[in-house]
Design a protein that fits this description.
Layout: E1 6-9, E2 17-21, E3 24-30, E4 43-46, E5 49-53, H1 60-66, E6 79-83, H2 89-98, E7 103-108, H3 111-122, E8 128-132, E9 148-153, H4 160-171, E10 172-183, H5 184-187, H6 193-205, E11 209-216, E12 224-231
Parallel strand pairs: 6-7, 6-9, 7-8, 9-10
Antiparallel strand pairs: 1-2, 2-3, 3-5, 4-5, 10-12, 11-12
Helix pairs in contact: 4-6
Bound molecules: S-adenosylmethionine.
S-adenosylmethionine binds at residues 59-60, 84, 86, 89-90, 107-110, 113, 134-136, 154-157.
């Protein structure tokens, strides 16, 4: 590519990078499957390392980081329970960050999305474990009730906070972090988004979570907020 490219590690999050070119800096992760893209994201190679640009308009986890999120529930080597995997846009970057020694258990109830996840991700990334299941019924996942280091929830459902709590009770390590992407319109269209975020946050606080941060994701996602909590039941 033309012009100078620089790569700097993110100031807080291991295995997250800033790729700088054309007077811009763009979020990215190191590609665990060099040469292969997941959602037509741009690939940039520097010093024989390939980076995948991570679009905050396509991924709420990227939007949270770009907007100055202080802590995330995803780190190298972690076992992550991911609710609402979709076709794997964000799961793929989680897979890059946790690396070969981590695991991301990816729950999705749409068979159509699951097929894409299997074909595009699971076939090539050995740390992505697909779970075709309903996040409202965590006891039924076909995995051991082992302790997860982190949880990520993006299911655009009413009662998202309650669903997160029920999953945490079964799977999340004490002291582990959970992130939840709240979509105000999915929860209650009649209330102002701030009120919806407050009410969902209160459910988390009343059921074992210490809230560490709440961040609105505008302009990347309208009427969305990301909440980060520590599990201390
Ligand atoms: C906003 S999309 C996820 C996007 C994805 N997290 C990303 O960033 O690439 C929400 C996903 O949650 C799934 N979903 C919604 N309710 C669910 C439930 N109860 N159990 C499992 N998956 C669910 C939907 O099928 C959809 O694929």
């Amino acid at each position: 590519m033309e012009g100078e490219v620089k790569v700097r590690p993110h100031e807080r999050f291991p295995e997250v990078y800033w790729v700088e070119f054309d007077d811009e800096r763009r979020l990215s992760t190191r590609n665990l499957t060099p040469g292969r893209t997941v959602y037509d994201e741009r690939l940039i190679t520097l010093n024989a390392v390939e980076y995948r640009l991570w679009d905050p308009y396509r991924s709420k986890l990227a939007a949270f980081i770009v907007k100055g999120g202080k802590q995330i529930s995803v780190k190298p080597g972690y076992k992550i329970l991911y609710l609402g995997a979709g076709t794997g846009t964000t799961v793929s970057h989680v897979s890059d960050i946790i690396g070969e020694s981590g695991k991301v258990y990816s729950v999705e109830f749409s068979a159509r999305a699951m097929r894409v996840l299997l074909d595009n991700l699971c076939r090539y990334r050995r740390n992505v474990y697909p779970i075709l299941a309903d996040a409202r019924l965590p006891e039924r996942y076909p995995i051991p009730k082992s302790e997860m280091d982190g949880l990520y929830c993006d299911i655009a459902q009413p009662e998202q906070a309650r669903i997160l709590v029920e999953n945490s009770e079964v799977y999340l390590k004490r002291g582990g972090l959970a992130m939840i992407a709240l979509k105000a319109r999915s929860i209650d269209v009649t209330k102002p988004p701030s009120q919806v975020f407050e009410e969902e946050t209160r459910i988390l606080e009343g059921n074992g979570f210490k809230i560490l941060q709440t961040l609105k994701l505008e302009p990347y996602d309208k009427d969305h907020a990301m909440v980060v909590g520590e599990w201390n039941p």
